[in-house]
Model the fold of this input.
Amino acid sequence: MSEHTLGIDLGGTKMLLYGEGVHERIETGSAFTPNDLSHHLTKFVASHRLSPTRIGIAVPGLVDADGAVLASDVLPLFSGWQPRLDLAAMKVKWSVLNDVKAALLEEMHDAPLGLTGGVVMVGTAIGAGLWVDGKPLLGASGWAGELGYLPLMIDDRVDRLDQLAGGRAIAAHCSVSPGLLAEQAKSGDLATLQAIGSGGRALGLGLAALINLLNPSRLALGGGTVELPGYWEQALRSAEAHSIPELWRDCQISKVREGAFVVAKGALRSARQAD
Done:
């Protein structure tokens, strides 16, 4: 058996288990539990004959300095989870961090000194990781970047950006599952495409807020919702329309370089850097 460092991207619709040369995707959902994670991780390690010495887990939600999950909107059964205790029997070095912070770590690992930028992940919900003057912006409690909680007034009602632009909200608006949402969009269903476009325009308002506040030189976007037909294009148009022109010109916006693997690779990178 070979020694490995593993990265786990735990999300609202899927869990991606990643090691060098091997990976596996598992469906999750709001009923997914820590026991489910442990079961699939054990099975993955055994089936690939791995002997992991370090494992990084990226979790959607608020993670404290000890790696405990204080709250998770998209995976409610993980709120209060203490993975270092739950998975202690595996006797490996653990690193547990917020999923967007993992994406930030991977995307910015080779950033030039002094760069101000960020990563915005748009999946079931929305989060941002911020990189200011060459280092992560953590905030007083380490939780800076909850872009999905940005309040926006649309049609005389205040909603969070998550509720307007997140994948779960768009699917709920269309009364379909996230998987079926993508299928309907690809088939050209007009109502679905309109809902996706509206979500993209709302995300653009959040991007404009980041650009106008931080004056970043680089923003990278990732997550499955960004790949929905028309979403990316509408987000860019809206962001440009609502950004200060000079700040918009200063900012390069692209998709994350590692695509669907960015969070898992960031979790792996975090595990390698753990003391």
Notes: The longest strand covers residues 50-59.
